[in-house]
Amino acid sequence: MLGIRIVILGIFLLLIPTLIGTLFERKQGQTEGLIFCWISGQMLTWAGFLVICVPMILLKQSFSLVSTLFHGYQGILLLAAIVFGIYRKRQSVGIREKKEMIKKAGRTAHIWWIVFWLLLILQWVLTIFLAYEEGDDAFYFATATITEQSDTMYLLLPYTGFSTGLDARHGLAPFPVWIAYLAKVSGIPALVVAQVLLPLALLGMSYGIYYLMAKHLCTEKEETVGLFMVLTEMLFLFGGYSLFTAENFMLVRASQGKAVIAGIILPFLMYLIMRLMRSLQKQERYGIIPWMLFAATMTAACLCSTQGTILSCVLIGIAGLCVAVSYKKIRLLIPLVLCSGVPVCMALLYFVVK
Questions:
Q1: 311 vs 308: CA distance, rounded Å
Q2: Which of 5, 38, 151, 307 registers the highest number of CB atoms within 10 A of its CB?
Q3: What is the pTM of this model?
């Protein structure tokens, strides 16, 4: 029975986001890979959960209603992914694609990848058997548990279970409610999901983002991607010199929204900026779909933490301005500002409800 529940959780954490992420694939059968589809699809589902959940919290609606609406949202995205997949497949019929020569990786490259996977498995094992107790868990994970059991959102104190007024400050970043949703659909207790199973997926997602970065940075020497990933792992493993480093956040409290901001959202925004710069270098047309992914990622930042609202806008503002000036494309600031629309609205809403 436990195995079936873990499979269901895997479907909602891996399969569904990957299928939804195919919406961001390029035309004519070109693909960015399953890792890109998984991460981008997760960003889109997180963005949708924020847009659905926050109004329901402010209106003091039930958690069950949020779950039902989010089921419908995912169903619409899956249907759209299937339709667009069939459309792209028909468009690519008759197009003869050039197949690139597959370069055989050297023995050294294989060794680096073996080392990477051994270290990653070690981190997964430690995550399962050495669950770290952190002070904020008493609030966030208790919130997820009480949300699932009481069918209310931020109306009960997570420390005592007594009724309270609407906690709008935390309600504007309802990442624990998403954890409660995973617990509800899988049947696994929210605490087990948050402390044991969810960190496995989030840690893999973080490394997946750095893998995508490595492919962009190591285009001329792809055999060095494995070395890049091993060095990244070493930085993670020995990055606990402070309680507030991004490495420490991802390794010991990955299921907290602030850790997702530091270890997933901001690095993925940096990767999207790298893709934008590559398109400008190659003078390729940057269509509307990549900008939609920018907007979804910015919205997902608001789900994880109220700090993500500010940090994502600051990152996009500084990096976007540098890119626009460097490439003399000032008009790039217009879509970047539009992508920041939801974070700006969430920031204004924070001051209203506060």
A1: 5
A2: 38
A3: 0.90
